[in-house]
Structure formats: structure tokens, C-alpha cells
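Milestone M4 deliverable, item 7.
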Amino acid sequence: MQLIPRDGQFYGLFSDIAQRLSGSAALLHEIFQDPTRLEANVAKIKILEHEADDLTHEVIDRIDRTFVTPFDREDIHTLASELDDVIDLIDGTARRADIYRLKTTRPAAMQLADVLVRATKCVEDTVRSMKDPRAVNKGGIGIKELEEEGDGIYHAAMGALFDEGGDPVEIIKLKELYDKIEDAIDQCEDVGNVLQSISLKNA
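Output delivered:
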């Protein structure tokens, strides 16, 4: 059984926002793979973040203009906001790396960024399949598994960071970058939970 088909443009807008998420995550991953791309990719991520903001505002405006929405208006607003929060966190991570003038990176940062890439892609795929409850449930489970993978990498990375010692300033910088990537992954899980909740309500 599918979600009630009403104003299909909401689905398209959600898909467009989710596409910006996965695109920005891929650019962030490139930064940690090759810090020489930092300045260019920070600018590209900011463009995607602005586009996602505009799309989010379009969703919210459309709620007021639409007589019959495909599902609960509050849920539409929540999903749009949760999706937008992911790209805001990615943008914040990129800008922080820029402020710190990132020159070198560590495997843990690349690993966390890779999990984020896969989590945002899973979010994108799940959003595109919103009308299929089974696909949404599968996607939600997949996002949760990636969040758990990210947790494992994060905790190991934090332990290694303090065990290895070194320049306290560099440790603080890396800790904050790890925290921010982990927050973005956690936010993907929040999106997955919202998608599953919407699907259950409308199945």
C-alpha cells in the first residue's frame, strides 16, 4: 500500500533537498581526502546549502497554499526541517575545517565522512521511495546501521586522539571536526526516524 497521493510536488521538493544533502556530503568527503580542495569545496557546499534553504522555504510556503497535502502538515514541516538540518551541519563542518585552515587529515576523519556520504545517499534513496512503506522501513534500518557504524568509528577515533597525545590545539581541532561529522550522521538517523513515522501513519 502506498501513501495517499495528493500534491506530488512535495515529494519532488523533498527529493531535491535530499539530493543537496548527498552532494554536500560527497564534497565534504573530498575535503578530508584532499585538503587542497578545501576552499573550492567549502564554496560549493555553501551553494548547495543555500539551495536547500530555498527548497525548504518552498515546502513551508506550499503547505499554506495547498488545500490537501499528501500527509500531515506538521509532518511535512518536520521532515523539511530535519533534512535542512543535515546540510546545515555539513556546511558547518566544512566552514570549521576552513577556519582551522585544514592542511592534513587523519584516516578517522575520512572514515567518518565516508559513513556520512553513505548515510545521506541512503536518506536520498529513502526520500525518493517515500510512497513505498517497505522501502521506507528498509531505508530507515539502513540509516540506523550506518549511524551505529559511525558511532563505532567516532569512539575509536576519540580514544586514539587522546591516547596518542600531541599538540593540544590540534587535538581540540580534530575533536571538534569529529564531533561535527558525527552530529551530521546522527541527524541522518533523525531524518530516517521521521520518514518511518510518516510511513507508518499513512500506510
